[in-house]
Amino acid sequence: MISRRKFVTAAAATWIASRLAEAAKSDRLPLAFSTLGCPKWELSKILGFAETDGFAAVELRGLMGSLDLPSRPEFAPDRIAQTKKEIADHGIKIACVSSSTELHVADPAKRAAGIADGKKFIDLAEQLGAPYVRVFGNKLEGGTRKEIIARVAAGLHEMAEYAGPRGVTVIIESHGDFVDSPTLKEVLNDADSAYVGLLWDAHHTFVDGHEPPSLTVAELGKWIRHTHLKDSVPEGNGRKYVLTGKGDVPVKAQVESLRKLGYKGYYCFE
Known about the structure:
The termini are far apart. Helix 4 runs parallel beside helix 5, helix 5 packs across helix 6 and helix 8 runs parallel beside helix 9. This protein is globular. The chain has a single domain, classed as TIM Barrel (Alpha-Beta Barrel), CATH 3.20.20.150. Helix content is about 45%, strand content about 20%. The chain is α/β, with parallel strands linked by helices.
């Protein structure tokens, strides 16, 4: 038996502790990481790591060695409610669901299959309350530059028409042959949809696109919804990824350019 005063005091302490815990979660910096960096981890380990190390969100790229996220048992109809509860219990958001869809593909059957697969990722994003699904333009091959740009833009528009009513935006990553502002700007303008945006892989536009971050943000800032950060150093004829701050990629300048823009998205480490 305990007195009423002790009971009320204990209850109040528990309430305060729970509110402080919630406040701590909401005050996290807008940092995320991609599951590309932990391909063999179970979802519970990913969420536990994110919470313990102060991340606010996770980008889903793959789980347990599989990139086919919609087929994973964690997202099956009989388990997805439990999965969503587990994510929420850790105070984590899903920043983006990343597909492998490549919109440059010219073959009609392969193109249709890729877009259909991308729509499955949009369905998953809707179920998880994730705002974005990532796709690639990827390669300038299979026609003239004008034809490829038009094909990628048309694919983005088609996917956006499907995504918009589901509360999801399709974001094309600056990747492959689509890493310079003129090319990306042309695609994004031609896609002509409020539900199309850019995943700015700030490493690729600097290293492969040879653009300073201030230029990229000035040209493409209005479309940037999500950001990938990573660092590297020259090695032979290529690059070697290193810990952030140990390479020659201007990560600080990339972040500052986004801050000046008023960017509200996540800074996601791949």
